[in-house]
Amino acid sequence: MQFIDLKTQYTRYKAEIDARMQTVLSHGHYIMGPEITELEAALAEYVGVKHCLTVASGTDSIEIAFRALNICQGDEVITVPFTWISSAEAIGLVGATPVFVDIEPISFNIDISKIAAAITPRTKAILPVSLYGQMPDYTAINAIAIRHGITVIEDGAQSFGATQNGRPSCGVTTVASTSFFPAKPLGCYGDGGALFTNDDTLAETMRAIRTHGGTQRHHHPLLGMNGRFDTLQAAVLLAKLPHFEEEVKARNRIGARYTELLRNSYATPQVMPDNTHIYAQYTIRVKNRDQIAETLMQAGIPTAIYYPKCLHEQPVFAPLGYKWGDFPESELASREVLSLPMHPFLDETEQDLVVDALLKYEAAH
Question: A GO molecular function for this record (predicted)?
Answer without folding.
Answer: transaminase activity
